[in-house]
Design brief:
heterodimer; A: about 290 residues; five-stranded antiparallel sheet; 14 strands; about 35% helix; B: about 160 residues; alpha+beta; 5 strands
């Protein structure tokens, strides 16, 4: 349970980090909070030849509102900073509520938002939440930068759009839409453990209290966050009655996801959880949308 | 072996300078290089919480950090908390309430509780159980640990008043 040897760099600037990434390419791994990478190295499941430690790059740690009412987070902003930030509470109630559920206090002391997203664990709350919130990711390399939508960033289990010479440097959350409510629900065997199934729901009401838009994203049911398009379509222009919510939850569990069985839960049980959680999360989200003027 | 790195770190108020391989985990550095074996190593992948120490006042898993990353930082371990003759108020409460059986998880739990009780001087049972949910104990069934935390909180209040 000890990591194998590696070459180690701890640059102070993004530019230096990018130059190391360019030089070492696939041999290199960027070290953010290390709360997933270091256990994998301890198990020797990951054996990077070169480790580029980002923890000294102070310029990657910030929480800033943008001009349009959105919120931008530096990739090295730690979970505990997000957890206690008044701007996050105001602009991103979903993230604010999710934070205490993400891993344990000790992990949140070190873990970073960029690290969690770049790690792309399909059971990570932040991964699913970023898709639900339609976040955008700023990816930098020595030759320039590009933006990626959360929807297209996650390509599979631990796999993202990031090229070996690229670094995720910023996460941009769009402004919240008025009359929108959010909810995150998950079931795990132990508190803070990987969820058997989780769901993130966002709904927006129109002027006549019907569903203008719904966003339902599952965690832990596939190799990446899974968006329930069919269930969302079913809710469109509907009154959020208990029957409509139940129908959408059933649609999501039956047709939008294809969970697998493992030692923790059967596929059938996961579908059942998905249905119940979606129903409850929709109910909570619509309640919140009704009481949320802005 | 890869290159050695210079590390200057303050542990329990004492500054140490060492050169070491970057792959040395903070938990192993504390135990093997500094001889501070109060920090226990359980799972070595961030699940059990036995290796919890304070990094600049916040609880962290010392098995999920490389020692070189602690360069320039402050670390506190259970050795800095109290001595057998002069125990910390939380240690004393664990003694009184029988919050210890085999004692393997105890240092990690104590270090988790120090900042928790500072920030939550009057916790209810739910908050206590939530606070220690990152620390696994295989002996006690947690009940006596929860009792010990309640007692510690009470005693800390008395301590503040006197």
């Amino acid at each position: 349970m000890k990591p194998p040897p590696f070459e180690y760099f701890a640059p102070d600037t993004v530019e230096e980090a990018l130059s190391h990434l360019t030089e070492y390419g696939y041999d290199a791994k960027a070290l953010a909070g290390g709360q997933s990478l270091i256990p994998m190295m301890n198990f020797r499941l990951a054996q990077p030849g070169v480790l580029i430690d980002l923890n000294k790059i102070a310029s990657l740690s910030y929480i800033r509102p943008d001009d349009n009412g959105g919120l931008n987070l530096g990739a090295m902003t730690r979970h505990f900073q997000v957890e206690h930030d008044p701007l996050v509470k105001e602009h991103l109630p979903l993230i604010y509520e999710a934070m205490p559920q993400i891993a344990t206090t000790q992990i949140r002391s070190r873990g970073t938002i960029g690290g969690s997203l770049a790690h792309a664990d399909p059971s990570a709350e932040l991964v699913a939440a970023s898709v639900a919130l339609q976040a955008r990711f700023r990816l930098r390399s020595q030759t320039g930068e590009r933006w990626a939508a959360a929807d297209e960033f996650f390509m599979g289990m631990f796999t993202t759009l990031l090229e070996p010479d690229e670094l995720l440097v910023e996460i941009a959350f769009p402004p919240t839409t008025p009359r929108t409510g959010w909810a995150l629900m998950e079931i795990a065997r132990r508190p803070h453990d990987f969820a058997l199934v989780g769901v993130v729901v966002g709904v927006t009401l129109n002027g006549s209290d019907r569903c203008q838009n719904a966003r339902i994203v599952f965690l832990s049911v596939g190799d990446r966050p899974v968006v329930a398009h069919q269930a969302a379509e079913l809710l469109k222009d509907q009154e959020p009655t208990p029957e409509a919510l139940r129908a959408a939850a059933e649609k999501a569990a039956a047709d939008d996801i294809d969970p697998s069985s493992d030692i923790h839960a059967s596929a059938k049980y996961r579908r059942q959880l998905a249905k119940v959680l979606t129903n409850r999360a929709l109910d909570q989200a619509f309640q919140r949308a009704k009481t949320n003027p802005n | 072996m890869s290159d050695l790195f210079q590390l200057t770190v303050t542990v329990n108020g004492t500054q140490y300078q060492r050169s070491l391989e970057p792959r040395i985990l903070l938990s192993d550095f504390l135990r093997h290089d500094l001889g501070l074996t109060g920090t226990h190593v359980g799972c070595e992948h961030g699940v059990c919480g036995a290796c919890t120490v304070l990094l600049d006042g916040r609880p962290v898993r010392s098995c999920l950090m490389f020692a070189v990353q602690a360069d320039g930082h402050q670390i506190e371990t259970v050795e800095g908390l109290g001595t057998p003759e002069n125990m910390h108020v939380i240690q004393d409460a664990f003694w009184e309430a029988h919050g210890v059986q085999c004692g393997f998880c105890t240092p990690g739990i104590l270090m988790t509780l120090v900042p928790f009780l500072e920030n939550n001087p009057d916790p209810d049972e739910d908050q206590i159980r939530h606070a220690i949910s990152g620390n696994i104990c295989r002996c006690t069934g947690y009940q006596h640990i929860v009792d010990a935390v309640k007692l510690a909180a009470e005693n800390m209040k008395v301590q503040t008043l006197t």
